[in-house]
Amino acid sequence: MDIPLLRRILRHLLESEMAIASYALGIHFIEPRQMSQLNENYLDHAGSTDVITFDHSEGGAGQMYGELFISVADAVVQAREFRTTWPAEVVRYLIHGVLHLRGYDDLAAAPRRLMKREENRLLRKLEKQFNLRQVAKPSV
User: Fold this and answer.
1) Using CA atoms, how far apart are residues 140 and 125, in angstroms rounded to an integer?
2) Which residues, in sequence order, are bridge partners of residue 69?
3) How is the beta sheet containing 22-30 ordered, strand by strand?
4) How far apart are alpha carbons 68 and 139 in whole angstroms?
5) Is the pLDDT of residue 57 over 90?
6) Where do runs of H (alpha helix) occur along 44-140?
7) Nearest-5° angle of CA 89, CA 95, CA 100?
8) Inter-axis angle of helices 3-12 and 86-101, to 10 degrees?
9) 55, 101 contact by CB (below 8 A)
10) pLDDT of residue 138
11) Helix-helix angle 3-12:109-129, to 10 degrees
């Protein structure tokens, strides 16, 4: 995986698309077994999931501090299901996690639709700016 490219994508998302002035994010790529443990311990849900977000910010405007835990194995499975690439799914998970940190919620139907629209909009913008397939290539 090209981590420097993912950093550039995330930096562009935060600074250019979302105008976030101050941020510190930990991005963790973990196995489904670890994701299942996090999901059960912190969210009381069974099984793995694609992304879990922890918000560590103090609510300051223009600030974002948190952690995203991402399962690449889940991205591979969902990419097949939704006929996309797993790197694009990983970028979608980055966007999804960042939207949670911005206060978006996906528990109820109406807010979930709003969040999905914004997620899709941001993904389209990033696809125009970056070759998301390059995320799959190891950095040199």
Assistant:
1) 26
2) 28, 52
3) 22-30, 63-71, 51-55
4) 21
5) no
6) 72-81, 86-101, 109-129
7) 125
8) 40
9) yes
10) 67
11) 120
pLDDT at 130: 93
The model's pLDDT over 102-134, given as tens digits with 9 standing for 90+, comes to 999 998 999 999 999 999 999 999 999 998 888
CATH no. for residue 9?
3.40.390.30
Place of tokens 């797993």: 86
**SS3 label, residue 54:** strand
CA nearest neighbour of 87 among 130, 121, 54: 130
Q: Which residues constitute the domain of residue 103?
A: 3-136
Q: Model confidence over 11-45: pLDDT tens digits? A: 999 999 999 989 999 999 999 999 999 999 999 99
Which residue in this structure is represented by tokens 């420097």?
Answer: 4
3-state secondary structure of 21: coil
- Phi, psi at 133, each rounded to 5°: -65, -25
Residue 59 pLDDT greater than 70, yes or no: no
Is residue 140 scored above 60 in pLDDT? Answer: no
φ, ψ (nearest 5 deg) of residue 3: -65, -40
The number of distinct structural domains making up the chain is 1
